[in-house]
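Researcher: Let's walk through a ligand-bound prediction step by step. First, I give you the protein sequence. Second, the SMILES string for S-adenosylmethionine. Third, you return the three-dimensional complex as structure tokens. Ready?
Model: Ready.
Researcher: Here are steps one and two:
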Amino acid sequence: MNTTPAPGYAFAELGELVQDHAASRSAAYDPFTVERLAATGVGAGWSCLEVGAGEGEIAHWLVRRVAPGGRVLAVDLAPERVPAAAGLRIERHDIGHDPLPTAEFDLIHARLVLQHVPERQAALDRLRTALRPGGWIQIDEFDVSYGPVLMAPSAEAARLYETFLAAKNRALAATGARPTWGREVAADLAAAGFEAVDPQPRIVLWQAGHPGLELLVSHTRTLRDRLLEQGMTDSQLEQVRAVMRHPGFRAASCVRYCVQARRP
Ligand SMILES: C[S@@+](CC[C@H](N)C(=O)[O-])C[C@H]1O[C@@H](n2cnc3c(N)ncnc32)[C@H](O)[C@@H]1O
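Model: Step three, the predicted complex:
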């Protein structure tokens, strides 16, 4: 049955698919995220904020990293999904609206969160003042406007994949999200008064079984109602799942930006 999707965070009602989503996201994106976080020097005694912590993988990495003596605050609209750990405080918090402490953190990280928050520029201002002078922010975000098919079992299969990506991007934009925000993060951080802004882009090859592509497979189910609203059919969603799992399919990923900056 087709139901009208609610506005707001597009993935709020993942239900039992939440673990699949989190596992694919973590496998696809954690290595680059933690490589860059480690380069800040984060270590024993640091105070960190993980924004939109999801299932808490990065919050837990930070907790291990800042021991002994450090602490991590993980916030999310749905904080119950973050497992508890010593040194980790977990709070419900809307980063678009709720206040943050002043000059509290040495490091703030947010991955794939602020693109979903229409008030993101105001949030960047609050995140800047939540950092201690010299403190680091790292924002990991996508620009989904790039992601060409490189090889497909047929021209029709390639077109179907492109149709799916376009429908998905429209569906996300309809919720107030900005799925191309990755390309704007660096400029927005500079506009919010951060310094030493350092944007690093990354594109990888997607083929059957790649966790980044599996995340898209899972989106055909989690965003199903929103995709039907954008003109796709259940039959097309089934077909595009088969395309993305075909051994002959290859695509470039979207661009993933990992942007670091510091509070002056
Ligand atoms: C795509 S998930 C990413 C989770 C995690 N950062 C990661 O990369 O694995 C987005 C997360 O942001 C949270 N979120 C969305 N809007 C938010 C808001 N306004 N304030 C706080 N968290 C929010 C969601 O509940 C979800 O856990």
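Researcher: And what stands out?
Model: The two ends are 53 Å apart (CA to CA). The chain has a mean pLDDT of 94.
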